[in-house]
Amino acid sequence: MVHVNSYLSIQLLFFTEGFSQLVRTQQVVTATLGEDAVLTCELMTPKNVRQVTWQKVTTGANENVATYSKRGSNVNLCFQGKVEFEDEGLQNCSIVIRGVSRGDESCYKCLFNTFPEGPISGRTCLHVNELYGPSLLITQTNNSHTTLSCSATGRPAPIVTWDNTEILENSTRANVTHLNGTVTVTITSTLVAFSLPDKDTRVGCVVSLFSGGVTKNVSMVIPARTQASFPVNSTVIVAVMGSLCFIAVCCGAAVALWFKLRNTMRSPNPTAHDIEQEELSTLNPQHDEPEI
């Protein structure tokens, strides 16, 4: 009896795999968050199909999404407004999932209920990509250098690149993985003022996903070298102001000293003869004679 059950299990597995090979479908469908995704199943050979059923593979039991038969199509209530039939047919049937979200990421089965063979199934899995950004940040450090940073967040990790690297140098890249599975990628480069051309230059940041399909970009205009202006660091400003104050104090002291020396030179020390004459005039004061 054990041998009979084992034989039946092997036979059932064989027929299931054989039936799956009768259905042509795309094993993996990739869509970016918010886009529409189309899932298609097609019988390789014509069969007497009574109904096509689409199911979402979930933990425990599969969830019926929609059905199609000669009587028409029907979308289950919880999927209405989300899922529609793209192609209605008993040999070739496809559905479209509108505005995919993370909750739509799963594998889906299409069941061709045939008579007398029974159900023939195909399986396709939906992967949802996410891409946020990019954002461009400028951090000016001094009068000759400035820092440009571009970052984007996605699932899988996005590719972040500059579209103009001629005036950029010392590029670094950093990745941060978040708990929700997304990854933030940041590329940072230094812009040297004297490397700017004589005309305005546009610097752009381009981001995309490894799986392709979606590309986003952001850009800014860097003024020409003659017009480029980079604010001076506050430390430099304080140092310059301190130097100017010191110079002003020194100049004031020098001017005061110069005036003092000048006055001294205009009033020379009295000679011995002058002192003698002053003493005689003090001892013998002259009086005016009265008029007769």
At a glance:
With 292 residues, the chain is α+β, with helices and mostly antiparallel strands. The protein has helices at 2-20, 234-266, 272-283; strands at residues 23-25, 28-32, 37-43, 49-56, 63-69, 72-75, 83-87, 92-97, 106-114, 118-140, 145-155, 159-162, 168-177, 183-192, 201-208, 215-222. The protein has 3 helices and 16 strands.
Features:
292 residues, alpha+beta, Immunoglobulin-like, 2 domains, nine-stranded mixed β-sheet, four-stranded antiparallel β-sheet, 16 strands, rod-shaped, disordered C terminus
The CATH homologous superfamily of the largest domain is named Immunoglobulins
The profile of the biggest β sheet is: 9 strands, mixed
CATH class descriptor name of the largest domain: Mainly Beta
Number of domains in the coordinates?
2
Q: Which term fits the overall shape?
A: rod-shaped
Determine the number of helices (DSSP H or I, runs of at least 4 residues).
3
Classify the beta-strand content into a percent band: 35-45%
Q: Could you tell me how far the N terminus lies from the C terminus, measured between alpha carbons in angstroms? A: 178 Å
Say how many strands there are: 16
User: Judging by the overall fold, what is the CATH architecture of the largest domain?
Assistant: Sandwich
Order of helices and strands: HEEEEEEEEEEEEEEEEHH
SSE-based structural type: alpha+beta
Averaged pLDDT: 78
Radius of gyration: 45 Å
